[in-house]
Design brief:
four-stranded antiparallel beta sheet; 15% strand; nine-stranded mixed beta sheet; 13 strands; Rossmann fold; alpha/beta; globular; 3 domains
Length: 427
C-alpha cells in the first residue's frame, strides 16, 4: 500500500480506537476485515502503532500539543511501528521538520523539555489508577511496575501434556525459526519473544500447545485438579484454564465449564476437541445462582473462580483498559465478584478446594473481596498458596506469593498481573 494511504489508515484506526467505545482489539480486527487490501506487513504496522500510542498516550499527546494538523495523524507519526522509510515517504515537508524535533524528544524521554518528565507523562496512567497503585506500593515498586506495563508482553505457550512433552514442543518449533525457552515457574510453559504465526503450525493444529500466559498456567496449578475428580471452571470465558485443568486431570473425571456467554462456550468446544479432551462439559448459565449450578451443590472437589474483573493486570497486552475502566465500574465489579464467589462456594464438598483469582492489580478486587468472603463463610479455611503450589511441583513457589496469596507482577515475574486466594472447605 502507498505510504500516504497507510498513514491515513493509521490515523483513521486511532480515531476509532481512541473513542473507547469498544475494546481496541475488536476495533482493530473490524478495521482489518473491512480493509481487505491491507497486507500482513501493513496490518502488523498498524496494530503495533495503535498499541504503542495506547501505552504512552499521555506522553505522545504532550509531544503533539500545539503541532496543528489532525491529532490522530500526529499521534500515528509519533507512535509509528512500521518501516521507517514508509513513514518518511508518507510525510510532507512540514511534517518532516516537526517529526525530526518530536522524535528527538521522544527518544530522549524528556518531552522536549530537556529534563525529567513529570510523573504523569512517564507512567501514562489516569490519575485515579495511579493514585490507587501509589496507595498500595512504595515509590520504587510503583515505578518498576509502571515501566513494565509500558512494554509489550512476550508470548507464552502452555504445552498440552496429554499430547506432548515440553522439550518435544521446543524441538518442533526450532525448524520454523522459533526459539522457545521454558518459563521460570510453570512446568508446562514456553516463552517466545516476538509474535510468530504459531497458529499456522502443525504442532498447534494437532493440539500440542495453546497460547496462555504463564500466570494463567500458575492459577490452574494452584487448583491442582486430580484424576477422576469433579471440577468446575466457574467463569470459563475463552476456556484457556479449562483446557489446562482438563489436561491436569488426564482427561478423566468430570470438568464443568460454566459461563454466561454462549458464543464463548461454543468456541471452546473446538479448542477442547483439538486438545483431545473428552471430560469437559460446557454449561451456559444465566447468572451465578442458576438452577444448573444449584444441582451440583456440595458435590465438587475443586472450583476455580477466575472472576470478571478490571483486567488491569493485562495492560501490557490490553493498554486500552486503563483508559476504558473507571473507579465506578470497578466498584460495581466488586459486588459481582463477591456474589459469584459466594455462589461458587456452594458447589464444594467438605475437603474441597476453592480458588478465587483475578487479573487485577487492585486490592479492592483482590484482598478486599477475599476478606469479605472469609468473614461471611467460616466453613472455609485459608490454604497458603506457597504450600499448594509446591505440592503441584512448582519450583521456587516462595517467589510467587505475598502472605497466603499468589501475587504475580509484570515487573517481578514477567507475567501478567494476577492475584489468587485458595481455601479448603472444612464443614
Amino acid at each position: 500500500m502507498h505510504p500516504k494511504a497507510l498513514l491515513d489508515h493509521a490515523a483513521a484506526l486511532l480515531r476509532a480506537v481512541l473513542a473507547f467505545e469498544q475494546a481496541a482489539d475488536a476495533v482493530v480486527s473490524a478495521h482489518f476485515r473491512r480493509e481487505r487490501a491491507l497486507g500482513a506487513r501493513d496490518r502488523h504496522a498498524l496494530a503495533e502503532t495503535v498499541y504503542a500510542v495506547l501505552r504512552r498516550r499521555l506522553f505522545y499527546q504532550h509531544l503533539c500539543a500545539g503541532a496543528g494538523g489532525v491529532p490522530e495523524r500526529r499521534l500515528a507519526i509519533v507512535g509509528w511501528h512500521g518501516d521507517a522509510r514508509t513513514l518518511e515517504a508518507a510525510l510532507d515537508h512540514g511534517e518532516r521538520a516537526w517529526w525530526a524535533k518530536a522524535q528527538a524528544a521522544r527518544d530522549a524521554g524528556d518531552g522536549g523539555a530537556g529534563g525529567a518528565l513529570p510523573d504523569k507523562l512517564r507512567h501514562n496512567l489516569p490519575d485515579w489508577l495511579a493514585g490507587a497503585l501509589h496507595k498500595q506500593l512504595d515509590a520504587a515498586t510503583f515505578r518498576a511496575l509502571t515501566d513494565a506495563l509500558l512494554a509489550p508482553a512476550p508470548l507464552d505457550l502452555r504445552v498440552n501434556t496429554l499430547k506432548a512433552r515440553r522439550d518435544a514442543v521446543q524441538l518442533a518449533l526450532q525448524p520454523h525459526g522459533i526459539d522457545a525457552r521454558p518459563t521460570p515457574w510453570s512446568p508446562w510453559g514456553l516463552r517466545i519473544d516476538g509474535r510468530p504465526a504459531i497458529q499456522s503450525l502443525a504442532a498447534f493444529r494437532d493440539g500440542w500447545f495453546e497460547v496462555q500466559d504463564e500466570g494463567s498456567q500458575l492459577l490452574a496449578l494452584l487448583v491442582d485438579a486430580k484424576r477422576g475428580e469433579m471440577v468446575a471452571d466457574f467463569c470459563a470465558g475463552a476456556g484457556g484454564k479449562t483446557l489446562a485443568l482438563g489436561a491436569a486431570m488426564r482427561n478423566t473425571g468430570r470438568l464443568y465449564a460454566f459461563d454466561t456467554a454462549g458464543h464463548r462456550l461454543h468456541e471452546l468446544k473446538a479448542r477442547v476437541a483439538r486438545a483431545g479432551l473428552s471430560n469437559v462439559h460446557t454449561v451456559q448459565i444465566a447468572r451465578e445462582r442458576d438452577d444448573r449450578i444449584a444441582r451440583l451443590a456440595g458435590k465438587l472437589d475443586r472450583v476455580l473462580v477466575d472472576a470478571p474483573c478490571s483486567g488491569l493486570g493485562t495492560l501490557r497486552r490490553n493498554p486500552d483498559l486503563k483508559w476504558r475502566q473507571s473507579p465506578q465500574a470497578i466498584a460495581q465489579m466488586r459486588q459481582r465478584q463477591e456474589a459469584i464467589l459466594a455462589s461458587a462456594a456452594r458447589l464444594l464438598k467438605p475437603g474441597g478446594r476453592l480458588v478465587y483469582a483475578t487479573c487485577s492489580l487492585l486490592a479492592v478486587e483482590n484482598e478486599q473481596v477475599t476478606r469479605a468472603f472469609e468473614g461471611a463463610h467460616p466453613s472455609f479455611e485459608a490454604l497458603p498458596a506457597q504450600a499448594a503450589l509446591a505440592a503441584a511441583h512448582v519450583e521456587r513457589a516462595a517467589e510467587l506469593v505475598e502472605g497466603p496469596y499468589l501475587k504475580l507482577w509484570p515487573h517481578r515475574h514477567g507475567t501478567d498481573g494476577f492475584f489468587a486466594a485458595a481455601w479448603r472447605r472444612v464443614g
